[in-house]
Design goal:
Blueprint: E1 3-4, E2 7-13, H1 20-30, E3 35-41, H2 47-53, E4 57-61, H3 66-76, E5 77-78, E6 81-84, H4 96-105, E7 110-117, H5 127-144, E8 156-159, H6 160-163, H7 175-186, E9 190-197, H8 210-228, H9 230-259, H10 265-304, E10 309-311, E11 322-324
Parallel strand pairs: 1-5, 2-3, 2-6, 3-4, 7-9
Antiparallel strand pairs: 6-8, 7-8, 10-11
Length: 327
């Protein structure tokens, strides 16, 4: 059963009993008329009970993983604007009204809260997370050519048409990468705003493992690059085989054209084999590129079925309205 509201604050949570109440209170203070929905992601503490006591709608998602929780929220909540924020109390929910206003005034699909570390005294940033975020952001920008400075931020304001056409298959913390790729595929208009990022409250522990989850996000980046830009991805994979083929065949062909005989049959066979591997990979990339474009066009058409923000003409009925398409 869907829950509805004009602006919905959606909060994926796993074992955030000590922090989720503060996040809900901050959201209600910043956006008094908003709908607040918490996805209890297989918590073993009183996260759901605290959220209900604070007046939030609680959805149960028994499959553990942030990706599952976010998909559940996107599917079950009906709103014009979605404010996605973690339930750990590290993001500045007070910045949400400005982000919502920016989304609506500029007809954007997404506004990303860029984390500006403002840790309380006695706390230190997890340097591995900070460096890992910079590295993964550089990888993503290189692969997908989307100008974001904080690709792993969990604080985002998104339009309905963007959320309802989001075809994610991610399970864990790599869901932010999937959201970014969705924006890249659609060519979505988006902006970033600075938002303070503070230390976790006492009793709240990070569920992110620097190396394990970092590897999963990196692997997801490459898989999405393969699926999203297969012609280039397969060309990159095929290039070493072409170079190997050239290296093996150069001497054989040079000797053949000079003497009319084949000097080294093993090199000839290996060179031809390497070239065939290159050719198969390259052709596979070309075919998959067409399939990928068909899929992207289907997503784009689904996106365009959702109405954009209507800007009424100042000329009144005699004038024409301009519909914001989000492009």
């Amino acid at each position: 059963m869907a829950v509805q509201g004009s602006v919905a604050v959606i909060i994926p949570c796993h074992d955030e009993e000590s922090a989720v109440g503060g996040v809900i209170a901050a959201a209600r203070s910043a956006l008094p008329d908003c709908l607040i929905v918490v996805a209890d992601n297989a918590s073993s503490d009183r996260t759901a009970a605290v959220a209900e006591q604070m007046g939030a709608v609680v959805l149960r998602e028994p499959r553990r993983g942030k990706g599952h929780a976010v998909r559940r929220l996107f599917a079950a909540v009906e709103a014009d604007v979605y404010v996605l924020v973690d339930g750990d109390g590290t993001y500045d929910v007070g910045a949400a009204p400005g982000m919502v206003d920016l989304l609506e005034s500029e007809s954007l699909d997404m506004v990303v809260g860029v984390r500006v570390y403002a840790l309380a005294e006695g706390h230190q940033a997890r340097r591995g997370h900070e460096w890992g975020n910079r590295f993964l952001t550089w990888i993503f920008r290189t692969l997908f050519r989307l100008e974001l400075t904080d690709t792993l931020s969990g604080y985002r304001v998104m339009a309905r048409r963007f959320v309802k056409t989001f075809p994610s298959a991610s399970v864990g913390f790599e869901v932010e990468t999937d959201i970014n790729v969705h924006a890249a595929v659609l060519g979505s208009p988006l902006q970033e705003v600075a938002s303070s990022y503070v230390a976790r409250r006492e009793g709240s522990a990070s569920k992110l493992n620097t190396y394990r989850d970092g590897w999963r996000i990196l692997r997801r980046n490459f898989r999405l690059f393969r699926d999203g830009r297969p012609a280039l991805a397969f060309l990159v994979m095929a290039s070493p085989w072409l170079l190997l083929s050239i290296g093996l065949m150069t001497y054989v062909l040079e000797y053949y054209f000079r003497t009319g005989t084949v000097a080294n049959f093993p090199s000839l066979i290996a060179g031809v084999g390497a070239f065939l591997v290159f050719l198969n990979l390259w052709i596979s990339g070309v075919v998959l590129e067409r399939i990928s474009r068909n899929r992207d066009e289907a997503v784009r058409l689904a996106y365009l079925r959702f109405p954009g923000r209507v800007c009424h003409s100042p000329l009144g009925e005699a004038g024409s309205g301009v519909i914001g398409t989000g492009t």
